Amino acid sequence: MAETLQLRTIEDVETDILHSAPAGTRECRAHNWVSSLGDICERRLVYWRIMGDMALDTPAGLRGIFGTGNLLAPIVIEQILNPFGRRQSPTWEILGRETKPRDALFTKLAISGRVDGIRHVADATGRMQPYNVVELKSMNPNIFAGIHGIDDLGKWHWAAKYPDQLLLYMLGYEMVERPGWLILFNKANLYEMRIIEVPFDESRADVLLRRAERINTHIDADSLPRQIRRPDICEHCPFLPHCAPRLQGDPDDAPEIYKPTEHPELADLLQRYVDLEQASREAGRVNRALTARLVKGQTVICGDIVVRWETRGKKWSKKIRRVGDGKPEKATEARQ
Ligand code: SF4
Questions:
Q1: Residue 264 or 43, more confident
Q2: Residue 271: what pLDDT?
Q3: Which residue among 54, 97, 122, 140 is least crowded, i.e. fewest CB within 10 A of its CB?
Q4: How many domains are contained in the chain?
Q5: Ligand 1, closest atom to CA 240?
């Protein structure tokens, strides 16, 4: 009887399979990748160009997640989206996964990347014509359930850059007239999708192009952009040991001074915060004055405003609404 070879344990085989997920490139990037240019940290983008080979390895679990997305995207296109598109009128299909961007600016600014596909739509003669760019992203079912529109992508810094990727593809493939399609699909049910239309935004595209330009300038000048110093981001950054940012605030630190035009989103958020905080303080003052003026339990109608009361345990809660505004009444306090 032939001698049996020593077999590995099932646990070892499982571990090996998990670690067999593609490692991704660990080399200095020759270009600014379209998929990364919206990254929250510009310094990290310079690191990828100058010391990509020294980036820490991505954990096996995360590599598996990326690898799964890459495997599924062409399957979703070929087996779900295109058969569906061919049954529509006019017919459409997603083609050209391997097509390179043409825009000369991409070459000049060392930007590279390939879109998942170009949606072609049949014209009046039945000929398929390039219509809009399409990018697919696979999503964990829980995250997928929380995304209903483009604004929801901002909840995760890794998803917030997806629309930027579409903008750059629209530019690179010279297809800015029609919104790109960002197709998010549920990994647990490939037929469940959110198609987010991303219209071309010239000013945002300009911000991204200027960013690519700055990265190239940093590389030529052997300099680095500022550290973002955000523990939630930096602790997972593959360049953390090289960058070594101080991740705890020191009140004696010199402030970082930005021009609003350098970081328009930050400037806008700060302005809105200051305005809303002021409005919220004012709302608190008005609420206290109303509480003193109203009699608990007494319904009041004043013009088109109605005040009703509810009891919750020992507390009164008032609800004030405008008649006919169609919105649910809003509880504004619970005091007794
Ligand atoms: S450690 Fe933080 S600041 Fe440094 S490159 Fe990474 S994300 Fe940017």
A1: 43
A2: 92
A3: 140
A4: 2
A5: 1
What's the average model confidence in pLDDT over 145-150?
A: 93
Instruction: List the end-to-end C-alpha distance of the chain, in Å, as a whole number.
Output: 88
Asked if 71 contacts 62 with a C-beta cutoff of 8 angstroms, the reply is no
211 Cβ inside 6 Å of ligand 1: no
Instruction: Please name the residue ranges forming H helices in 52-161.
Output: 60-76, 82-86, 104-108, 141-145, 157-160
Residues 234 and 314 in one domain: no
Domain of 181, in residue numbers: 14-243
Is the pLDDT at 332 greater than 70, yes or no? Answer: no
% of the chain surpassing 70 pLDDT: 94
C-alpha 241 – ligand 1 centre gap (Å): 9
Q: Ligand 1, from 235, 236, 237: best to mutate by most atoms within 8 Å of Cβ?
A: 237
**Roughly what angle, to the nearest 10 degrees, separates helices 10-19 and 60-76?**
70
From 48, 226, 227, the mutation candidate for ligand 1 (largest count of ligand atoms within 8 A of CB) is 227
pLDDT at 25 over 80: no
pLDDT in tens, 193-208: 999 999 999 999 999 9
Q: Are 180 and 308 part of one and the same domain?
A: no
* Atom number, ligand 1, closest to the C-alpha of residue 238: 6
Q: Which residues contact residue 253 at a Cβ distance below 8 angstroms, ignoring those fewer than 6 apart?
A: none
Residues 167 and 31 in one domain: yes
